[in-house]
Write a structure and sequence with these properties.
There is one protein chain. This protein is an alpha/beta fold and 338 residues long. The protein folds into 2 domains: 81 residues, Helix Hairpins (Orthogonal Bundle); 205 residues, no CATH class. It has 11 helices and 7 strands. Strands 1, 2, 3, 4, 5, 6 and 7 form a 7-stranded mixed beta sheet that branches. Helix 2 runs antiparallel to helix 3, helix 7 packs across helix 9 and helix 9 crosses helix 10. The longest helix has 84 residues. The N and C termini lie far apart (96 Å).
């Protein structure tokens, strides 16, 4: 309340919601009525009352303008504080964002440096060609030279596409007429894969760099290879990536010839590298062995009907998991060469 007990809003005839402009307008209107200059000819008592009223109006007007000024200043202060808080928040968020971006860039730089280092190391390893030999436990190296006791081996370049999509080239030599045993281009009990057919041709042509010429039939193979690398045909091309893609579907939709050829290749590589964990997946009575039996008769007139029924009833999860494990066991023993 006003110091003398009167309400300044009532004195000026305004409300608490009135703006400063409305209060000023009302004040100017009242001063035209109560200003002492307008009552100089009035009696003394009237002039005293007019003076008192004018003093109250002035005091009320000053009080209300001060109230509004303080309220405006409070709002401005609050706005400044809010703006300061918002600016501080934006600055903090900008710093945090910049920190995240810097950390992300640093992480990307570290990852790029790691990839580049790994690529350099991989390329160095691939350029450092080991002294290759025929990998097979039953192949005694130089004792298998081309003699009348050792019939010529069937040697072929083969192409293998891994699940990563990388395509590599190797040599496979069947050591018997029935093609039940195969030796592969290897070193340190690993399967060697060249990045291109041409780089493999150049490598095998340097007989002083490897021990492959100890096998029967090497000379005739080199004559067939010639001076230009040739892409292996479909019978000598294998695609683990395609097999892996097929595993997404039920066994009844798998292509028998595709799985038979790759199962035989996995068996041959596993025997050549003595991969016991993979060979266990192919033993008689195993899921892959049972699946292979079905695939080999699926196209027959009578037996094939029963095989197709069995394929349709198989749960693909078990067989897919075993197939992926078998392929992974082979891929773990690959060494790439330039």
């Amino acid at each position: 309340m006003f110091p003398d007990g009167q309400d300044p809003y009532t004195l000026l005839g305004v409300t608490r919601e009135s703006s400063v402009a409305e209060i000023r307008e009302r004040y100017l209107l009242l001063t035209q009525i109560w200003h002492p200059d307008r009552h100089q000819s009035s009696p003394a008592k009237v002039r005293e009352e007019v003076t008192r009223q004018m003093q109250q109006l002035n005091a009320a007007y000053k009080h209300l303008t001060d109230v509004h000024t303080r309220a405006r200043q409070d709002r401005e202060r609050q706005n400044r504080e809010r703006q300061d808080r918002e600016r501080d928040t934006r600055d903090r968020q900008d710093r945090e964002r910049q920190t995240r971006e810097r950390q992300k860039r640093e992480g990307q730089d570290r990852e790029r440096e790691t990839r580049e280092r790994q690529n350099r190391e991989r390329q160095t390893r691939e350029r450092e060609h080991p002294r290759a030999q025929w990998t097979h436990p039953g192949f005694p190296g130089a004792n298998r030279r081309d003699t009348s006791a050792n019939p010529p081996s069937t040697i072929h370049p083969i192409a293998i596409t891994l699940r990563s999509g990388e395509r590599g080239y190797a040599l496979r030599a069947h050591l018997d007429d029935e093609r039940t045993e195969a030796a592969f281009l290897g070193a340190q009990n690993r399967l060697l894969l060249f990045r291109s057919a041409e780089s493999m041709r150049k490598y095998v042509a340097r007989t002083e760099s490897h021990e492959l010429a100890t096998i029967a039939g090497w000379e005739s193979f080199m004559d067939r290879m010639g001076s230009t690398a040739k892409e292996p045909d479909d019978d000598h091309s294998f695609d683990f990536d395609l097999v892996s893609y097929s595993l997404r579907f039920p066994p009844a939709q798998w292509v028998p010839t595709l799985f038979i050829a790759h199962r035989d290749l996995i068996r041959e590589i596993s025997e050549a590298l003595e991969l016991d964990d993979v060979l266990k997946l192919l033993t008689v009575g195993s899921p892959l062995d049972h699946l292979d039996d079905l695939f080999r008769v699926v196209d027959r007139p009578i037996a094939g009907l029963r095989a197709r029924r069995q394929l349709a009833s198989l749960q693909g999860g078990l067989f897919s998991g075993v197939w992926r494990k078998a392929i992974g066991g082979i891929e773990e023993r690959v060494r790439w060469l330039r």
